[in-house]
Amino acid sequence: MGQMQVLRTDSFVGGLNLRADPFQLQPNESPDLLNVDVDPRGGLSMRSGFERINTTAVDSIANGSFTPEQLYSWYRTSPQIILSANSKVFFSTGGNFTDTTIAVSSADGGHFAPWSGSSSDVLYVASGVATTTMSKWSGSASTALTASATGAWQDSLTNPNGTHMPRSNFVAAHVDRLWVASTRENGTDFPNRVRFSHPNFPESWREIDFIDIVEGGSGITAMMPFGGALIVFKQNSIHAIYGYDTDTFQVVTLTSSLGTPSSHSVAVTEGGLFFFDWPDGVFLYDGKEFSDLFEKLRPLQQTINDSHLTNIHLSHADNRLWLSVPIATATTATHTYVFDPTIEAWTLYRLSDSAGLISPIDFVASTGTRSLVAAHPTDAFVLKQTVNISQDDIRGTDTSFSSYYVAPWLDAGVVSAKKMWRRPDFVVPVPAVATRITVQAYRDWEEATVHRLFYLDLTVPTGGLQWQAEAAEPDANLGWGEAPWGADPTGAQFVRGGNLGSARAIRLKMSGPGGKPWGVNSITYKYNPRRIR
Questions:
Q1: Whole-prediction pTM value?
Q2: Does domain 49-399 correspond to CATH entry 2.130.10.10?
């Protein structure tokens, strides 16, 4: 038997990779994980819990009957969370939600555009072509705007005096004008039409001020300003409207092969425009080119319920990208994949009731407190992620959720040779409460049977800490030792696991105890190589 060798894993920043087979995974990637975050500095930890911000169900909607479409942060003197759900629009300042009385008919829900006027800030709402009027929201009251049509246009640029807005599915504020897309005029739908208001007068509209984008199929699916242009999406194409007035507006087709199914699946940041294309996945447009962010998740194409593409949500919050999708036969989001652009890594979140998250956003309250908030897909509650909690409170009761991380297969670079794998060493964060991490070991690419099982029992340090790895395995009587730990409760500590036995390759699955935070900073694998026969 050869001299003992060492393999170390000090980084988990590769995140989730569903595409690679066992021989293609990088040491810092995982084929399966749940409810853990990967730190850009290398470690992994259980995600923080979510709790309700509204203790009363939105509009008294029964559990299971909630159909959220979009959350929107409206920043003003008194910031508000705007929620489009169940054909209505609601608002909150950080607690329970109140009905704005704005009705919505669009399948995408209400679409919002903030406007800073000379006397006050308002929020314009495009609520769908089947709704008789569009609206504006002052923060305390809604105002219905007259639908633009024959006899209700403001054709004079020198005397703009309207309180109008075309019936439409989408709205945006761009280059000193209000823009709408996918309109209904005089009873006729114009799904490819984009209209723009008078400059600096968002409620005055000329009949001739429109652009029809016919390329890329029928129907605009989203519209959003980005990088000095107005980006218009269709299901199979993306277009940019450049210019600053009627003499310079021009349409440029950015791509005729990518698009998005709905406005739910587009998210904009200062650095890029993210969108979900079916069936190719998530892309980033940086103003010059398109980048594929979906390579590691490509197998999801086979599991997403493509009969409910408008229930795919993509948003940006907490400096990360959030993709929520319905899997298999589900009609609402069951999985939320979280992408960190700084390390280009995906992880997976699911709530304690196995649901995903709808439209996560950043919300800064009037007190200056910043929160990540998201809607539950079926129950009428909006949730915020809270750093110091380790359970989810969705319906008024704290409930633990599963969390685990599966490491890649390790064969020490020699597939055919067996090795005697010794007790792995772990560096983990010091716990605030007594915690047990379960470690399951698999061998020789057999994923159905646990080869060895041991526990890392962590206790709170008081002048020194003893960590003990306890074994429970089907095929050996292991003798576990104890490793002394330092006394720093805020740092990281060393603990030794159990023998892994003889195998050509091994894999570890680390699972949290439920309701208690846990994490891993480093794993050191030790083995004695054997001769190849």
A1: 0.93
A2: yes
